[in-house]
């Protein structure tokens, strides 16, 4: 058995309300063990037989759809992948932990789409952005709530859905994962 974290997209926002206790119960019925939710925004720690992250992502999306009628997605990472998502964020060293985010992508995007998104956003806000492997690193310098860099804008421009977590939350989740 291996420990993973799943970051669920669009949970407890936009009408997709879900009690974490109900999510834990549903995942346990589908052979996930050691299920623990971290805050009510769709962060789930669990253990499962080792398998590719894509297979686990699909299985969690199935649970959300079948048990709760929620069309969402999950990005699944092991401890090593989560640590890399934190360490590779170029803004983590000099940005504020609550403003620096990793925006995990459901699917890969291209450098061309990322560059076009940067061009389209030019002059609209002070955010700093960088493309990583299946993620976008963002420093919301003046706050997420004030930003014009919305999830919808990112999705339309990058051609894939995503879900973001700030560095503070990611570090807290990493600390909960077993070594």
From TrEMBL:
InterPro entries attached to this UniProt entry: DUF1697
Domain of life from the UniProt record: Bacteria
UniProt protein name: DUF1697 domain-containing protein
Species annotation: Altericroceibacterium spongiae
